[in-house]
């Protein structure tokens, strides 16, 4: 289905200025305000001659991504036409100087000394109809000279396609609390994308830096309201890829793939059916638009499927708990209790074939004390699940049979299997953030850029984990009676394990990941000793906990990879 432009919102749904004309309309994102210092060296910033009225120019279009959809927080104005829709929020577009501008009188602190231009609405109507209407209302714009240049055929260094949520319900950034995403919000939210543009792209030295290369990028948005839009967007891939003019073309996917039918509820905004999403990703990759966020489609699908929990459970270097895949067909044909018993038998066999070694005599059983005489306790989890949802604990076959039915036999659930994993005793989680640089050579030991820790309060009677809490190193050490040797031993083991997993990822994709988060379950087994068990692979863009500079650091690595 061919995308058609969204009509502007109903005039009654927004406030209007009582004036007929406005010299400036504040549609720009915050980094479009006058840059400080050297950021005005680009464009016309270095010009010394008079710029006469009527001169043809180009100005850098910068539209706040929330307004680019045609809606506002906390509830969007829904897109009114069928099919996926495209917008351009950042690009050089045509305009005309509205009155003479003398750079000799330019004052960075006085916008009355800035150039006044008349945008050519026809040049942006097809790019962004919402913005075009604002242009017609404003008639003229006052912009800093670094946002203006003489007409040029230069192509940007990078064209970016943001595939993002355009549905009726606003994506809650989820910033607050220990279990929240922090100041930048979650990746599908408008808040996160705005910060990605302002703190990541516009601040990148090649794309929007201080050396005269400001506006060296363009951003398209593909707005998705439901999974069907993703399938319809497959046919748009050739046209969109051809429209992107940059020397490099990359896509950022701000959606959550799941194994569920679409649920039109505010709690599930940006959740889409995973087959539709990965099909769409592959269509754009086939046109030369590489996936820079979070990962190429095949690798992203593998990571989020969690299938590696089972496929590597017999690998001693992986340090994984025993795990097995349980199919829905077995559950429905054999019955839940018989399927549960068979799953426990499989876990028992896997654990015997790949036992966790005990470092010292008398050390408590690994990976848990409750299963020392046979596997009876564990967790059930789904692949393509997010934010701690769809993880249930069980104890004995009877409870496992109930959990299997609960997690797989639900309305709208499309899963064909789930993962059953043995129980692990641990004190807290240690999360390592690996960001390989261009200098990193596979096989060389890589240290994590950041380590964050957290704990859980336990599991509810319904089997769900609860009370997520961030921990700093001092709290972890207090738990361990200030045993620095055990703390350092845990970090050493986690880094060693992390490097095994980095090599495994290279066997799945020859391109090193720009970023990966690895979660480890750690416990103190005695003075100076720790036990470390691998828990989870988390994609580029995963929550950074208390690492406030995590998202900007990760964005830089993703953009560097896109520019290669």
Describe the structure.
The chain is α+β, with helices and mostly antiparallel strands. Helix content is 27%, strand content 23%. The chain contains 15 helices and 20 strands. It has helices spanning 65-69, 121-125, 129-138, 190-201, 227-233, 237-243, 274-285, 297-305, 308-311, 328-334, 336-353, 397-408, 473-479, 484-508, 550-562, and strands spanning 56-62, 85-97, 116-119, 141-142, 148-149, 158-165, 217-224, 248-254, 256-258, 271-273, 290-293, 323-327, 377-381, 391-395, 417-422, 428-434, 450-459, 465-471, 516-526, 529-538. Strands 1, 2, 3, 4, 5, 6, 7, 8 and 11 form a nine-stranded mixed β-sheet that branches. A five-stranded antiparallel β-sheet has the order 18-17-16-19-20. α4 (190-201) crosses α15. The chain is elongated and about 85 Å long.
Mind summarizing the main beta sheet? 9 strands, mixed
Q: Write down the overall geometry.
A: elongated
Please identify the structural class as seen in this structure: alpha+beta
Rg from Cα: 27 Å
**On the 0-100 scale, what is the average pLDDT?**
86
- Uncertain segments: 1-39, 68-78
Distance between the termini: 33 Å
Helix content: 25-40%
Count of beta strands: 20
Quick structural overview:
By secondary structure, the protein is an alpha+beta fold. It has helices at 65-69, 121-125, 129-138, 190-201, 227-233, 237-243, 274-285, 297-305, 308-311, 328-334, 336-353, 397-408, 473-479, 484-508, 550-562, and strands at residues 56-62, 85-97, 116-119, 141-142, 148-149, 158-165, 217-224, 248-254, 256-258, 271-273, 290-293, 323-327, 377-381, 391-395, 417-422, 428-434, 450-459, 465-471, 516-526, 529-538.
